[in-house]
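QA checklist item 7 of 12: single-chain prediction sanity check.
[x] sequence parsed
[x] length recorded as 64
[x] structure emitted
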Amino acid sequence: MQGYLISAHEHEAHHVFDIWYRNTSAIAPNVITGDMHSVNKANFAILHWFGLRFEPRSPIWKSS
């Protein structure tokens, strides 16, 4: 798998598509996951356009 180091001061969502698009390995993922910092409308749209599923992990908030 392809990856690169993202600084603590950079927003993760800006790099989701780039990491997938620049993947040069023989493994071709069709589902992309991430935490809540990977979410933005552009990622859903762009990854869907390229035939990928974007499934960010969201915490389940329990009401008290």
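[x] summary fact logged: The longest strand covers residues 31-34.
[ ] second reviewer sign-off
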